[in-house]
Amino acid sequence: MNVTDAESEIMTTLWDKSPRTVDEIIAEVGPRKAWGDATIKTLINRLLKKKAIKSEPIEGRRRYSPLLARADYVQSQSQDLLDRLFDGELAPLVAHFAQHRSLKPEEVERIRKIIGGLGEDV
User: Fold this and answer.
1) How far apart are CA 47 and CA 10, in angstroms?
2) Alpha-carbon distance 47 to 4, whole Å?
3) DSSP one-letter string for the chain
């Protein structure tokens, strides 16, 4: 499922707390992104059409909840990043960050532990 960057702002709000009404979503996202009500409502409708969120009446008001799990979204976005920038390979991504960003010793150790544990499940 393709969720745009703008739509992900709505998703993040719903992942943090749901169900939420349109007014609650607007109150959360509007000031942060300087978006008007119509923009936010349009994004909500797009997400409904994509079946990324659901709408249900609760206590007389429409409330929205995510159908797309945050973990599934993160996996999809991560894979997309790898595919677009690093031909789907993880090693060049790690090398890029290691060469262009100062890694803290605890980050290096954590990466070593992750890599060391990869062979255990195979």
Assistant:
1) 9
2) 10
3) ----HHHHHHHHHHHHS-SB-HHHHHHHHHHHHT--HHHHHHHHHHHHHTTSEEEEEETTEEEEEESS-HHHHHHHHHHHHHHHHHTT-HHHHHHHHHHHS---HHHHHHHHHHHHHHTT--
| Domain enclosing residue 56, as ranges | 5-66
Structure tokens at 103: 């890694």
Res. 40: pLDDT tops 80: yes
Q: What is the model's pTM?
A: 0.80
If asked whether residues 57 and 97 sit together in one domain, one would say: no
**Mean pLDDT computed over 3-24:** 97
Q: How many domains does the chain have?
A: 2
